[in-house]
Amino acid sequence: MWIRPGHERLQYTGRIDWSDCSAPVFVFPCTSVRIRFTGHLLKVHVRNKRVYWENYVGCIADGIQTKMRLPDVGEAVLEIPLIPAGSETADADRSESQRGVHEVLLFKRQDCCHEMAVLGFEIEDGARILEPPKRPGRRIEVYGDSVSAGEVSEAVEYTGRADPEHNGEYSNSWYSYAWMTARKLGAEIHDIAQGGIALLDGTGWFNQPQALGMESVWDKVHYQPALGGMTEWDFRNYTPHIVIVAAGQNDAHPQDYMREEYNGPRAEAWREGYGKFLRKIRRQYPYAWIVCITTLLEHAKQCDDSIEEVCQDMGDKKIRHFLFRRNGCGTPGHLRIPEAEEMAKELSAYIEGLDIEW
Predict the structure, then answer these.
(1) Which residues contact 172 (CB under 8 A, 6 or more apart)?
(2) pLDDT (mean) for 98-104
(3) How far apart are CA 49 and CA 225, in angstroms?
(4) Coil/strand/helix, residue 138
(5) What's the CA gap between 210 and 145, in Å, rounded?
(6) pTM above the 0.85 mark?
(7) 337 phi and psi, to 5 degrees?
(8) How far is CA 288 from CA 14, 253, 282, in A?
(9) How far apart are the C-alpha atoms of 169 and 110, rounded to whole Å?
(10) Pairing between strand 289-292 and 242-246?
(11) Average pLDDT score over residue span 215-237
(12) Residues ≥6 apart with Cβ < 8 Å to 317
């Protein structure tokens, strides 16, 4: 039985390109589609476009997480591993009516090192697609870099250490502090995160030597130059209650001017750019809370001092600056799962203490 991508019982989350309703494109990490169905079979048809690294799609089927390798370019049919009906694992804690029912979340593990189109699903003939669970009433949006995307998060044996050599296999947005925070809050998430991206154009690692910053990417759906032109996001499609801004650490590449000359012209220009970015977000979301952060990843304290200065100058009671207990001194490498959990625990507790009208 064929299920088209636009079926009304499929539940999508994330900033998705729906310009072709027969092939919605997943660009950002944490983008997902959820399906509940009966039967013993699920296949998903996908199309991938690779820029770098090996590309994987994440899957949580009946509570068990796996990843599946995608082709570098072109289409593939992926068979989702399901727990057999009647097994103790499948039927534990389930009512009679729920036995034989499967729930699968298919999600984008990585950033725009690739883009993936969902072409449709197959279930058994005679099986049924069921109503999805109720969508969360809380909504958050994150603007960040590789840490917000969950890059290298699964390399847990390197916790607190520099990154191992890798080819994309350790990156998993499910274990980013961003998605962990959303789950702790019971919130839907749009994760506008890209590895290597700085706040300002011309710095950071993303798209070197013509580096693009979050100031050029934040309002886009497609933004990877290697995959074509940029396309605009329609902000009417999603309105968060809270926005987390976690951009700025990568602006220290190739020169850490914030550390070297805090009152110098480049540092002043960065603070001006950060304030301009916050005002853009405020214009799009007049009522949202905005929480500005950096991460446990090692960086100069002067970056956090600049963020605090800008937030104070904004004079907006719904724009806050939050520092983690081990802010900027937790690890020289990307955050692994335990460190992301640490961030998510502190950040979600802070957010719950705000006067947010969810």
Answers:
(1) 58, 67, 109, 150, 153, 154
(2) 85
(3) 13
(4) strand
(5) 17
(6) yes
(7) -55, -45
(8) 18, 31, 8
(9) 9
(10) parallel
(11) 97
(12) none
